[in-house]
Amino acid sequence: MTDLTGTPQIFGTWEALTAVSHHYAAMNLHATHLANHWRRNSLSSDYWAAYAALQIPETVPTGWLRRDDVNYVLSYLLNELFENCAKFSAGPEQTVHYQAWFEDERMVFQFTNHITPAGERPFITLIQELLTSDPDELYFQKLEENAEQEISASGLGYLTLIKDYGIQFGFRFRPINAEITAVDVQAHVSLKEAAF
Q: Which of 43, 72, 75, 162: CA 20 to 30 A from 188?
């Protein structure tokens, strides 16, 4: 599955952003540390959610999300993404890179972790299902599947975020070498209530 020519594969809503695009924040972590000390996932997500939510004024116009609501949604979103990096990183490269861009009407969060090339196909199959199916129907289908069998990568977290909070996701797979593929996940969050 890996394209060793170095050509990335992109799925969903993807945008090329740079550190100087807008107000920007970043952090590097280690996937093994996140996995071995699970509390670090929620601590990191709560910290960055609160940091990002301070971008929102104390009072907002009608139709915009309040600071507390943004903090809640981002804490849930970021916890899901930190935990996915902890659970699914594989191979010799264990760096997890977090980036965030804050704009007037939206925020974009990007996580990069690394997997082995063998892990690409199952993840891409899941992504394509998430991006092409009706979120409500797929959500209940996945709930039933989870009740019948133990599934570690069902996509329920992504589905909840898409279905209930209007989050748009983008995925990029970048082959590094024969042993490592970088996986970038972008989450686009509108700050307007209509997105929910």
A: 43
